[in-house]
Design a protein that fits this description.
mainly alpha, 5 helices
Length: about 100
């Protein structure tokens, strides 16, 4: 599925026209928290990594992000393309810890 197709399909389930941006921003925060909690339980509490729940929570974050872009009339694909372009400029040869440390100094 392509990003813009996802964005349009996801917007079918968006409810309301007032304060949509605020609702979506808060949704990103809360769903990200649920995603982080799954990872915390796996990393620090000895739980198994529940990939089914991980995919569900990542999907929820993706939905909210796509709807923020929809609200702002930004094709969701543009978000992905610009992010990859930024990463290519920042890490033209891929990520390396040594280069990362140099940037921090």
């Amino acid at each position: 599925m392509e990003f813009n197709e996802y964005q349009k399909l996801a917007s079918r389930t968006l409810y309301g026209n007032e304060q949509v941006l605020t609702n979506c921003a808060l949704g990103v925060a809360s769903e990200s928290g649920e995603l982080v909690d799954l990872i915390k339980k796996y990393t620090f509490h000895g739980h198994d990594l529940d990939k089914k729940e991980l995919v569900k929570e990542m999907g929820d974050v993706l939905w909210y992000l796509s709807q923020i872009a929809e609200w702002a009339d930004i094709p969701f694909e543009d978000v992905a393309i610009q992010n990859i372009d930024k990463l290519r400029k920042r890490y033209p040869n891929g990520f390396s810890e040594a280069k990362s440390r140099e940037r921090m100094e």
